[in-house]
Amino acid sequence: MGEKRVLLPASEVDMTAVKYTPQRIQGPHLTGFWLKLFVLLAEAPIIGSIIMILLKNKNRKTEMLKNTVIPEDPMFKPEFPPQESEPAVVCLEEDGKPEERVELALQCLPDYNPGCIQIADSSAPFRYWKIRDYAYAYRSKLTTPSQVAEHFISAIEEFNNKNPLAPLLISYDPGEVRSQAAASTQRFKEGSELSILDGIFMAVKDDIDCCPHPSKGGTTWFHEVHEVKKDAVCVSRLRSCGAVLVGKTNMHELGLGTTGNNANFGTTRNPHAPDRYTGGSSSGSAAIVASGLCSAALGTDGGGSIRIPSSLCGVVGLKTTYGRTDMKGLLYRGGTVAIVGSITATVEDAILVYAAILGSSPAERVSLKPALPCLPNLTSCESWYAVGSLRLGKYTEWFNDVFSTEISDKCEDILNQLSEKHGCETIEVVIPELPEMRTAHIVSVGSEALSELNPDFEDRKSARSTYDTRLNLALFRTYTASDYVAAQCLRRRLMYYHMEIFKKVDIIVTPTTGMTAPIISPTALKVGETNLSVSGNLMRFVLAGNLLGFPAISVPVGYDKQGLPIGMQLIGRPWCEASILRLAAAIEETCAGPKKKPVQFYDILKGNQL
């Protein structure tokens, strides 16, 4: 037994005495035969328990959970105090039709300039086609959704023939894509399109129900115990807007990993560097958007799983406030850390998709009392003044705790530009107990995932999972009920610290990840990989969004010397998606610089691989 540690109440902690501890996760890096052997030992009745105890002790888990007296009561899901209203916003009705919300969102965007879509200039800087570009092309009869569908299908066939396998989609039916595209084409012909999202190609992560596709969660077995009878709520909202839903994207199995490795179907490659990971777990969703094949994709985020791959692939990943979107129809529907959100090529497109999918479940409206959803009105001068009024919180020692200073230097440059161009003030803040936040998160997400999956682990189905998934499950099984309660007490402490910070600032700014895209080890492709050091670097900055439920967005801000994307994360106050979207739009518009064309990129609007 370790020495007992007694924490002061959070309200009595001296913030000036807080010392930052660099966050390093201790654990083996294993692939191939050694990973197999380690998993077999970890699952063994006696030796497995010893291994997990040693691993947890090495990372201070036992000290934090069992040997510490935490004075706060548990907080079993995020609880938010009332927030001040945001300036220069347009409010939306949760109970309204998705297509009506999307129309309001469209009115919040700056005037559209169609000039670039009509100019074929190979010397022009690279840019992604936006949703409004597709809509303009359809309405101007430059192309049709059916023509775009043929370009899309050809590109996917090429991807599916790669060796080794690196699929973007693991459930896909060309006939279904053609059918949806033909229906959209007919609506445009009749002038009866449903919304600006009509005919827009979107993909859905494999842990979200989307008819007629099975939901496998990246496994070889989950569809055997889970029948898809109807769309998830978020998918049905997109479908009602006319989106063409192309299939189910590849993912890290069961969402229990940060790289996107999947030995079952093949590991999706980073479009900017095919020898590197996309990040996970929403790997296929980020890659299919970064490759130009979809304007948007749905992902889920229980531990950075939207923001990490968005950062590594150079696209925009929006994680909404916990409870802002309805989780019905998702693999993990009952937890307290995960949300469904969007990955898009641009902030503008993130606003449009967010407007379509938002809307709390009836139960969450009672328990969380969400504020009215709002969007930034980017058409008014008041909006740009609102950017300058935003107070940005930066914890410098944490901000600079990155694998390469290129990341922190690039994000620091963005803060300097925000100050120079918009007048944003950056305020130094201190966030205590960040290692405790990591511990509280892993106990919460692990225990909740196991609770959801246990009923399905019959007939040795867990043994059919990948080796890194089995290792994570072995760790999760060692957490006790008292560990879970202790984690929820830590959640209340950490919520107090952050809400005190949000009295001084509007947004907390960090790099999205502590490293750019890691290299894929060749031995990891067949068996999988566990690398806790890489996981720690990728997850370093994302956990407050999950454990505490805050909205957060990753926006591309540049590249390192190897040409790998760097993302910057903006963490907002509860229910204040409009503020982080407004700042993200300003970064994208005036600060981030030119985009680099991915190595693997397809122009499905005009039908070219560039």
UniProtKB/TrEMBL annotation:
Occurrences of domain Amidase (ranges): 169-581
A single Gene Ontology CC term: membrane
Record flagged with keyword Cell wall biogenesis/degradation: no
Membrane-spanning ranges: 33-55
UniProt keyword annotation of Iron-sulfur present: no
GO biological process: N-acylethanolamine metabolic process
Gene3D superfamilies, alphabetized: Amidase signature (AS) domain
GO molecular function: N-(long-chain-acyl)ethanolamine deacylase activity
Keywords: Membrane, Transmembrane, Transmembrane helix
Family matches, as Pfam families: Amidase (PF01425)
Family stated for the protein in its record: Belongs to the amidase family.
Protein name: Fatty acid amide hydrolase-like isoform X1
Gene coding for it: LOC107792874
